[in-house]
Each structure stands twice: as C-alpha cells, then as structure tokens.
Design a protein that fits this description.
- The complex is a heterodimer of chains A (361) and B (294).
- Chain A is an alpha+beta fold.
- Chain A has two domains: 7-227, 3-Layer(aba) Sandwich (Rossmann fold); 232-353, Nucleic acid-binding proteins (OB fold (Dihydrolipoamide Acetyltransferase, E2P), Beta Barrel), CATH 2.40.50.140.
- Chain A is built from eight helices and 20 strands.
- In chain A, the strands form four sheets. Chain A has a six-stranded mixed sheet, sandwiched between helices. Chain A has a five-stranded antiparallel sheet with strand order 13-12-11-14-20, with no helix packed on it.
- The relative contact order of chain B is 0.12.
- Chain B starts with 10 loop residues before the first helix and ends in a 5-residue tail after the last helix.
- The model of chain B is unreliable at 289-294 (pLDDT under 50).
- Chain B has one domain (62-289): MetI-like (MetI-like fold, Orthogonal Bundle).
- In chain B, helix 7 (153-177) packs across helix 9 (194-222) and helix 8 runs antiparallel to helix 9.
- Chain B has helices at 11-42, 54-61, 63-93, 101-109, 116-127, 132-139, 153-177, 181-189, 194-222, 226-231, 241-250, 255-289.
- Chain B has 294 residues and is mainly α.
- Chain A binds chain B through residues 50, 53-55, 74-76, 78, 80-82, 84-86, 88-94, 96-97, 100-102, 104-106, 110, 113-114, 117, 130, 146, 149-150, 153, 159, and chain B through 180, 182-183, 185-193, 196, 200-201, 204-205, 284, 287-288, 291-293.
C-alpha cells in the first residue's frame, strides 16, 4: 500500500555562518532499508535529517529520489513522514484531529478518514483514544500518536529524529521494538537519527557514524560494532581501553604485534600498518578475561583499584604494571588492592592508526 | 494534578501572606477605594441633594457628551486592529530570527523610551503642514498641497500607533517565538503549506497571546488623553471620553459628573474586553472544530 522508493541519495554541505555543520555528507539508501545516523550531539545528524525533509536549506549539495532531484521542493511536497524528538503534536487538537490532519489537507472523504484513523490507532495500540488531547497522554502515548500521524499518509520515506530520547529506559526498549516491527511490517524506508549506539545497532540495516559533520564510518551494525574504522568510532562503540603502541610486526592476514609501554600486545587490524608505525590497540571491557591462563600472549597483571557492582557483573578498574588503566567487566568477585592476571584474547584486540580524521582529540 | 490542601495553614502560607500584604494594601488603597469612591461620587450629583442617577441621565441626553462614546470607539477599535495586525505580521515573520534582529528590534522599540508629550511634539513637527514629511512629498512633486495629518483624527492614530506598537510587537514576538518550531515543522511535513500552517496550527496557538494583545491595546487606546489633546481636535473630532471627564472635573469643577463619565468609560472598556474574550474562544474553536470528527 505504500508508495515505496528504490533509492535515495544525497550529498549535502551545510554552513551556519562560518561554522560548517555538514561537510559533503553523502549517502545512498536503498528501498525498504532502515538507516541510522549515529553520533554525539552536535555532529550534524539532525541537521542532515532536516535538510532531507526540506525543513532547512542546504548550503550546497543535492538530494535525489529514484532519479528525481527533490532539494528544491518544499517539505509539504516531498511526501516524507517525520517523527520528532519532542513529539510535536498539535496541542490544540484532539488525537483524532492530529492523526487526520494530513488526510484532511488532501480533502479525503470523512468516512475514509475516520476509518483510516481508527486503523492507525489500532496499529499503534491506542484504540479509542480519538477524543483525548495530547496534554492528557503520557510521553510514550504521544510518541505513538506522532508515529501514527506520520504513517497514515503512507510516506515513501520515514524520518525519525531521536524519537525515543525523551522516554524513560523501559519504555524506550518497548518502543524500539515497536518501531522495528512497524518498519518491517509496513515495508518502509526509514532514516533514524540517534546518539544511542544500542538503538542504532538493534534497529538498523545500515549504520552511519558521524562526527562534526563528517561521515566517519558506514556499514552494517555488526561491521561497526566489531570493526570500527577509527578511534572515534571505536570509542563511540564501547571500546574503552586504548593503548598507544608502536607496531613491531605485521602479518599478511592483519595480525599485528606491537609494543605498548612495556607490554607486548597481539591483535588484528584492517589497516595497513607497517612495522614502526604508531597505532593504538583497543579492547572492550567485556572482552578482557580476568584471572585465566597464566602464560601465552597478551597476559598482564593488574592491581584492582575500584569495583562497581552492575547487577549481572562488576565493572572493575585496574592499574596494569605498565601504569595504564584498564576497564574490565567481569563476573569474578575482586577486592580492591588485590593483584590479578588479565588476558586480552588476541582476536578481540583491534589495532587502529593513531592519526587521521577519526583521531580522538 | 494538585493535591487538595487540608488542615491548618503552614508557616509557609503565613509567610506568603505576609509578603503579599504590602501589594494587597496598595491595591486596596490606590485602586479599590478610589474606584468605589468614584462610583459613590458619581451617584451624588453636585446640584441635587441625595443619591440619584442624574449624572448618567445627563450624559446620555446631551449629544455633545454622548458623542464622545462613539468618538472613543472609532479611535480605539481601528487603532487596536491596526496595531495588533502590524505587530502580528512582523512578529510572525521574525519568529525564527532574522538578519540584524537586535538592531531592528531596538529601532522598533525605541519610541517606548520617549514620553507621550515628547512623541506628540515630534509628530507635530514631522507630520505637520511644514514638517519634513509633507515638504518631502511636495518637494518631490508627489503632492500639490501638504496633507493635513495633525490636529485631526489621523494625528491621534499616528500617535497611538507609535506608543502602542512597540509594546504589542514585543509581547507577540515573545509569545510566538516561544512556540516549539517542531510543531510547525511537523505540520509542513504532513502536507501543509505556510499559509495553512499559520491558519490551522499557529494562529490557534497564538490566539491567547493575541487576545491579551488586543485587550491591552484596546484599553490603552480607549483611555487616550494626551494624544487626543495634543494631536487631535480636543473640542471636536477627537473629543474622547477621557477629555470629557477631564473637562467636567477641571473646567466645570463637577467631580461628580466627571466620576460618572469615568465609570462609564470603565464599563465600556470592560465590554470591549468581553467581546475580545468571546472572539478568542470562537477563533480557537473554529480552528480545532474544522478538523474534528463531527
């Protein structure tokens, strides 16, 4: 029933005064995909979404849909649906009037409008809410109405601007599942903006990580999670332990062995790192193994400094013999002051170039 | 939902009341008492013993006096509409900020800092028969004769506009720019063009602010005195109710009659406010009902 699109592609630059918010941000989206723009606040992701929606003019660039250029069209002519972080319901209209708004502008017959609004309310699981006002609804209910209001027009592209960030943690998880469900059931093409990597990973077919208006990495959630291309993406995706190192040997399959302030670390890389090059070894707190094999590669000793109970596991901060700090998630019960062996499984250590656009300032 | 309070007043309540007392006292002494005293005075005509409505009867039977009602309305209503409409147009278009916004706002608001008398003198000089405005138009051969813009109805309108526009504009700008831009943005993505957004979404949301603006400007215009004196014809075309009351009080020394005119002025202002409130209600209803499921 939806008017679907085959492709959306754009290349946009946006400057506010002298500040560049988006620099040649380019992407090609295939139909029925769920794309997420992920990045910290101020990275330009919302600006990009507003430009695609037509709510902001681009300083330079183009937006194409199925071979037609649309960046000169006003937002009301683009046929996109948009869901906003703060719901943006019309406070002076009932739920019915809010959802019916778009259809009424198209002068559809009243009976059809009534029927479709009812269907939409069923779809977002709020049947019978027609006569309420937005002010009488909870945040989650308001966001459902906002989604229904956008979906009733069968948009060829659904744009979601941090739709879950005003909701509490439990509701966020519920709504995340619902959005995913709606997206696949209705065969939508969606672009979703968020700063939450869990949302990005769980919802998307394709994730685009942005920083300061520049695309850092684009790939499948698994790609982004396991193989971050640079330090910024690694940091954003939860690699918490970084060890500046000098590459000693580099194998043909991407195996690397490097010296990092008294430690010899083995790991993998997707970059071409020559011996002698400066690199950074990175590992997630969850991937560090505590108190196992006494010999082999990547075995170090550390002193437990702080233990925080997280429920399923503990977050432990250790000081390694090299003086470096190490964050670890473990189920072992450790006491501050004790010395423990820690292992970095070589297949879990990635080496990244320490210089380049994704460097950590 | 607010919880209903029960039991004894707390210490906080007492403190709040203590803090409120000076202003309450002020309102009582400087407003309520003079107001009631005015009503009392108006019911005790100077030339008749005891209480009577003679002053009110006199007002409505003397054409020179009751004409002031229609004169005042004819000044206040168009002025209110022009001031609010101009302010709305400008403030709405400045709601997302514009280039040199501060400078422009400052220039627009500058007349507030001038007293009405000074402003009146300025208008007399600028728009008068030998003022710059007329000299320029005549000099450019756009006019044969200078326009008569002062000492008449137009002069009072110009003066009222200059005094009230800045207030009204600032108030509406604050009100409109406080509305979440994403509400407007969502209407656009749902297919509404800018005019539809204004009519169906923004106007109903602005309506409460608009009603306050209408009410304030109307009350201020209705009570106009210095502008009508300085720039109008205070004994003819622009003899407003305030001038009539002043004349009774300080030319005829009939405080009682003057009080009656002042009380009537208050009643007409109140009537004006009621009409504005009713219109506001209808405006909001019209915008929301049009899309309802009736």
């Amino acid at each position: 029933m939806n008017e679907t699109i085959d492709s959306l592609r754009f290349r946009i630059t946006k400057r506010f005064g002298t500040k560049t918010v988006l620099q040649d941000f380019a992407l090609e989206v295939r139909g029925k995909q769920f794309i997420t723009c992920l990045g910290p606040s101020g990275c330009g992701k919302s600006t990009a979404l507003n430009i695609i929606a037509g709510l902001l003019p681009a300083t330079d660039g183009e937006v194409w849909i199925d071979g037609g250029r649309i960046d000169h069209l006003p937002p009301e002519k683009r046929g996109f649906g948009m869901v906003f972080q703060n719901y943006a319901l019309f406070p002076h209209m009932t739920v019915f009037a809010n959802i019916a708004f778009g259809l009424q502008l198209q002068h559809r017959p009243a009976a059809e409008i009534r029927e479709r609004v009812r269907e939409m309310l069923d779809l977002v699981q709020l049947p019978g809410f027609e006569d309420r006002y937005p002010g009488q609804l909870s945040g989650g209910q308001q966001q459902r109405i906002a989604i229904a209001r956008a979906l009733i027009l069968h948009p060829r592209l659904l744009l979601l601007d941090e739709p879950l960030s005003n909701l509490d943690a439990k509701l966020r998880i519920e709504m995340r599942a619902e959005i995913k469900h709606l997206h696949s059931n209705l065969g939508l093409t969606s672009i979703y903006v968020t700063h939450d990597q869990v949302e990005a990973l769980s919802l998307s077919d394709w994730v685009v990580v942005m920083r300061d208006g520049i695309l850092m990495q684009a790939g499948t959630p698994q790609d982004i999670h396991d193989q971050p291309r640079n330090l910024f993406v690694a940091d954003f995706m939860g690699f918490r332990n970084f060890f500046p190192a000098e590459v000693a040997t580099a194998g043909p399959e991407g195996e690397v062995e490097a010296a990092a302030s008294g430690m010899r670390i083995r790991g993998k890389t997707r970059h071409s790192l020559a011996p002698g090059a400066a690199a950074v070894a990175a590992i997630r707190p969850d991937d560090v193994v505590v108190g196992a094999a006494a010999s082999g590669p990547n075995v170090f000793r550390g002193k437990v400094d702080i233990v925080e109970y997280l429920g399923r596991e503990h977050e432990v901060i250790l000081t390694l013999e090299s003086g470096a700090r190490l964050w670890v998630h473990t189920q072992a019960h450790l006491t501050p002051g004790e010395f423990v062996p820690v292992v970095f499984p070589p297949e879990r250590v990635i080496f990244l170039p320490s210089e380049g656009p994704g460097g950590i300032a | 939902m607010r919880l209903r309070r029960t039991g004894e007043p707390s210490e906080l309540d007492l403190m709040a009341m203590a803090c409120l007392a000076p202003s309450l006292l002020y309102v009582l002494v400087m407003f309520i008492y003079p107001f009631l005293y005015g009503i009392y005075l108006s019911l005790r005509p100077l030339k008749l013993p005891g209480f009577s409505l003679a002053n009110y009867v006199a007002f409505f039977t003397d054409q020179y006096e009751y004409m002031t009602v229609s004169i005042t309305f004819r000044l206040a209503v168009p002025n209110t509409i022009v001031v609010v409409a101009c302010s709305l147009l400008l403030a709405y278009n400045m709601r997302r900020g514009i280039w040199l916004e501060r400078t422009i706002t400052t220039i627009l608001v500058l007349p507030i800092s001038l007293s009405v008398i000074l402003l009146g003198q300025g208008i007399l000089g600028f728009y008068g028969g030998r003022g710059w405005f007329n000299q320029l138009l005549v000099g450019l051969d756009l006019l044969e004769e200078p326009l008569v813009l002062t000492h008449n109805f137009i002069g009072v309108m110009i003066s009222l506009f200059m005094q009230q526009f800045p207030f009204c504009f600032l108030m509406l700008l604050g009100y409109i720019s406080g509305i979440d831009p994403s509400i407007e943005n969502s209407a656009r993505t749902l297919g509404a063009n800018p005019w539809t957004v204004f009519r169906r979404v923004m106007l109903p949301l602005i309506a409460p602010g608009l009603a306050i603006a209408f009410a304030l400007v109307f009350v201020m215009s209705f009570a106009t005195f210095p502008s009508a004196m300085l720039l109008g014809q205070p004994s003819g075309a622009t003899r407003t109710m305030a001038i009539a009351a002043y004349a009774q009080a300080f030319e005829q020394f009939d405080m009682s009659y003057a009080s009656a005119i002042a009380v009537l002025m208050g009643l007409f202002q109140l009537a004006g406010l009621l009409v504005i409130l009713l219109l506001r209600k209808r405006m909001v209803m019209a915008a929301t009902m049009g899309v309802g499921k009736r």
